[in-house]
Design brief:
Layout: H1 8-18, H2 52-57, H3 61-83, E1 93-96, E2 99-102, H4 112-117, E3 125-129, H5 134-138, E4 145-149, E5 152-153, H6 160-174, E6 178-184, E7 187-193, E8 196-199, E9 202-206, E10 213-215, E11 219-223, H7 224-229, H8 233-248, H9 251-254, H10 258-268, H11 289-305, H12 313-323, H13 332-335, H14 339-359
Parallel strand pairs: 9-11
Antiparallel strand pairs: 1-8, 2-3, 4-5, 4-6, 6-7, 10-11
């Protein structure tokens, strides 16, 4: 999708996503409208106490809180997969600051004023810190306001994320710790943030109820429907790892599907996606058995290295295939066939991975 074809507010978000591989973190912000209850996750700066009267008079507060909570769960589960697997991400690993940041303009235009009522203003504030990252080691915390970087004022306002990415780009290339000015409880201090070498895939929440995921080589998108379908963080981690594996192995390129999948992802990031682009398989070719098996194999290693349980992957697949078989045209199983073969292969690889863990051998395929 061309940037020029987007409305003005969406252009800014699209440009921010195109900045050098999410310099603030490997997770990107999405424009998704969420209406279903989220799972319990990190405390958010946007969950500061609000007067009951304010909530009663602003019906958009609950949808926005739900959106933030679902994004939080997605980022929290993705974080160890990104920070633990730089070795396996090959050319997809980059130096990152290790946190996400938003201001009120990071949300869809209809939520801008509601975001202000929940604690967001024109300044970028930290919304998540990658566990084990340089940002965490330096003491950066959720809710910190970003004041400066390398002695220069941190951008504010509608274009803050894109301008911040431009400001940080040459600093990240130098690989030295970055001096970050933060404000917490009214007090301003400077912390030196070491860069974190991590997988640099953007992890996106898709605004759709179909139970599916998509990977275009640089992004992983989990639909709202799939997020709600998962019953545990281990299940969600498997889905993220599976699409990370597709990206690492270059499957979108091999399928000649980069542009097609990218258009689907771009559409699902809009507040009101065009439903015709997710009809059927949206023009996406079904993964051949060998490519899908390779992604499943790599995903189990990604999961184990990140500390996730790999024993329940077959049970998840059985439940998914039973409830959303390949005959459901816009579902996950329609694009990932051969369930019987998959389960047999997953069992074999699981035993290999667990044997390596017990023997203390490197967890590499």
């Amino acid at each position: 999708m061309l940037v020029s074809a987007l409305p003005a507010w969406q252009k800014l978000r699209h440009l921010a996503a195109l900045a050098p591989l999410a310099l603030l973190a490997a997770c990107a912000t999405q424009e998704a409208t969420v209406s279903s209850p989220p799972s319990a996750t990190w405390p958010s700066p946007a969950t500061k106490s609000a007067a009951p009267t304010a909530q009663a008079t602003n019906p958009l507060q609950k949808p926005l809180r739900d959106l933030i909570a679902q994004q939080d769960r997605l980022y929290r589960v993705a974080a160890p997969l990104l920070t633990s697997n730089a070795q396996l991400c090959r050319g997809n690993a980059r130096n990152l600051l290790g946190f996400t940041a938003k201001n009120r303009y990071s949300f869809p235009i209809e939520y801008v004023e509601t975001a202000r009522s929940l604690g967001y203003d024109d300044r970028l504030q930290v919304t998540g810190v990658l566990p084990g990252s340089g940002a965490e080691q330096a003491g950066v915390k959720r809710g910190d306001l970003l004041v400066s970087v390398a002695g220069k004022p941190m951008p504010q306002g509608t274009d803050a994320e894109r301008q911040a990415a431009v400001l940080l780009s040459p600093l990240v290339v130098k690989k030295a710790p970055i001096a970050l000015g933060v404000q917490r409880s009214g007090q301003t201090s400077t912390v030196n943030v070491p860069l974190t070498f991590a997988c640099a895939f953007s992890i996106e929440l898709g605004n759709a109820d179909n139970v599916n995921t998509y990977a275009d080589g640089r992004r992983v998108l989990i639909t709202r429907g799939m997020l709600n379908f998962t019953q545990s963080d281990d299940e969600l981690a498997y889905l993220i790892a599976k699409d990370m594996a597709h990206n690492i192995l270059g499957h979108a390129i091999r399928q000649r599907m980069v542009s097609t999948i990218a258009e689907v992802i771009d559409n699902l990031l809009l507040p009101h996606p065009d439903p015709t682009t997710t009809a059927g398989t949206a023009g996406i070719r079904v993964y051949p058995q060998d490519l899908d098996a390779a992604a499943d194999t790599l995903s189990l290693y990604l999961l184990a290295r990140a500390g996730y349980n790999i024993d329940n992957v077959p049970a998840f697949w059985k439940r998914l295939a039973d409830q959303y078989p390949a005959s459901v045209p816009n579902g996950y199983t329609a694009l990932h066939p051969s369930t019987a073969y998959r389960l047999s292969m997953i069992d074999k690889v699981t035993q290999i991975v667990k044997a390596k863990q017990e023997a203390g051998k490197p967890l590499v395929p």
